[in-house]
Design brief:
This protein is α+β, with helices and mostly antiparallel strands. Helix content is about 65%, strand content about 15%. The protein has a domain of about 325 residues: Up-down Bundle (Outer membrane efflux proteins (OEP)), CATH 1.20.1600. About 5% of the residues have low confidence.
């Protein structure tokens, strides 16, 4: 018995492992039957662009709350410590005599003496003898080495016109974010819808080419049998074989187009590439509703276009900015309160400290007088921006009306072509049947048979293309008209 080497065993294990992995991958790969509505629902919940747009709304809402919070009292706590390196020296005016300095300092001494007594010190007001607090030249040091403070501060705006306008402006900023999110959803819906229709077109085209290829193979078998029996020439056999081979590249391209459009649709709806898609329906399913959909379109709904609405919101935001700039000429009033505790001592014996409370309340009025013309310049700048928005809106509405008219014309052409294309399919099918019968009885040629098959294939592709063009034009028109399936 021949001994099996370790390398052979290892190779067999690798092959077995790869085979097992491929089998498991095929078993775990799922197929999803997907309609257009389901594709849109998945896209609106899984697409990263839509998620980011929703987060942008939430961010703007927090920003608005932050501006509103400025209307509430602002309370802060503070604490501080100061170490005196060199104390301040005060002079009483020379000797025990009075003089002007004595007249000034006597009231001050009445205030300072109790503080020194509490600290156990005895001040010497001009005795000429140096004491612990004396500087040696007739003056004395004031203050203590350690100074501690701590407390709370409160401020509250009473009248703040610019703040009120800023709150309104932040509210419009949230509204703009909501409209931008709506625009993102509409754009994604348009992309997913067109990708879905494109996949239907690719599948229908692939099916048409498969039928044509199958018919070409059948024709070749008939011609080849006739050639074997000596009923037709070798030329007919060659032409039939060439016809089959000519269709093969087109069939492969159509198959590849189906895979690419599936991948594109998966990316748009945020689906895992391991999941296979089975698209529900055909383009011909939309044929019956084409004329009704065309007649129901109201192009006046262009005012619902998201870009127009965003410009309207931006115009309103500029108006609020203009009002806020004018409000800068008005005074502002705010209230404040302070509560602090102060302690001073020469040592760090905190338990012996005596904390003295200190509190104040007040009202502050700020009246702007002169800023170098900055406010006036901002007002003029905002006026120009408002005029620019007006002109941009006029230009955008004209462009949207033109696009809507163009899409309506494309839909009308598709509707008119559809009836003719459908009749062409029936006629081409009838022509191919006749050509087959003529060739079978020996009255037709192989060229007639090939031409009839080619005409049938082209008529079927043109038929599905007309439906696809209508559906794509309708999807683009819905985007221009601002339709999002939410009542408009």
């Amino acid at each position: 018995m021949k001994k099996i080497s370790k390398k052979s065993v290892l190779a067999l294990l690798v092959v077995f492992s790869l085979s097992l992995n491929n089998t498991m991958a095929q078993e775990t790969k799922t197929t999803l039957n997907l309609s257009l509505d389901q594709a849109l629902q998945i896209a609106l919940s899984e697409n990263p662009t839509i998620i980011v747009a929703g987060q942008e709304i939430e961010k703007k809402q927090y920003a608005k709350k932050g501006v509103v919070a400025q209307l509430f009292p602002q309370i802060s706590a503070s604490a501080g410590y100061t170490r005196t390196i060199k104390k301040q020296v005060m002079y009483m005016g020379g000797g025990s005599g009075g003089g002007m300095a004595s007249m000034i300092m006597e009231p001050l001494a009445k205030i300072i003496n109790p503080l020194y007594e509490e600290l156990g010190l005895t001040p010497d007001w001009g005795s000429g003898e140096e004491t612990e607090a004396s500087s040696g030249d007739g003056g004395f040091e004031v203050g203590l080495a350690n100074n501690w403070s701590g407390g709370f501060n409160l401020s509250l705006p009473i009248f703040a016109p610019t703040l009120y306008k800023s709150i309104s402006l932040s509210g419009l900023d949230v509204e703009l974010a909501v409209e931008q999110s709506r625009a993102s959803k509409q754009d994604l819906k348009n992309q997913v819808t067109k990708a879905y229709y494109q996949l239907l077109l690719a599948q229908d085209s692939y099916e048409v080419l498969q039928q044509s290829y199958k018919q070409a193979e059948d024709n070749y078998n008939i011609v080849n049998n006739s050639f074997q029996q000596g009923l037709v020439s070798e030329y007919d056999k060659i032409r039939a074989e060439v016809q089959v081979r000519n269709l093969n590249p087109s069939l492969l391209q159509a198959k590849n187009a189906v895979q690419l459009t599936k991948l594109q649709l998966k990316v748009l709806i945020g689906m895992d590439s391991d999941t296979d898609l089975n698209i529900v329906g055909r383009l011909s399913d939309y044929e019956d509703n084409m004329y009704v959909d065309y007649m129901k379109i109201d192009t006046t709904l262009v005012l619902n276009n998201s870009s127009l609405k965003q410009l309207d919101i931006q115009k309103e935001m500029l108006l609020k900015t203009y009002q806020m700039n004018k409000a800068e000429y008005l005074p502002t009033v705010s209230a404040s309160a302070m509560l602090q505790w102060i302690a001073m001592n020469e040592d760090f014996k905190f338990k012996d400290y005596k904390w003295s409370p200190y509190s104040t309340v007040g009202v502050t009025v700020s009246i702007p007088i002169f800023t170098g013309g900055a406010r006036s310049h901002k007002i003029k700048q905002t006026k120009i921006q408002m005029q620019q928005v007006d002109w941009n809106r006029i230009n955008l509405q004209r462009s949207l009306n033109m696009q809507a008219e163009s899409y309506m014309n494309n839909m009308q052409v598709s509707v008119e072509q559809l009836a003719s294309n459908k009749e062409n399919v029936n006629q081409a099918l009838k022509g191919r049947t006749i050509a087959q019968k003529r060739y079978e009885v020996g009255k037709g040629t192989i060229l007639e048979l090939n031409d009839s098959e080619l005409a049938l294939t082209q008529s079927k592709l043109t038929y599905t293309q007309a439906i696809y063009d209508f559906l794509v034009a309708k999807s683009d028109l819905d985007l221009v008209l601002g339709k999002d399936g939410e009542g408009n």
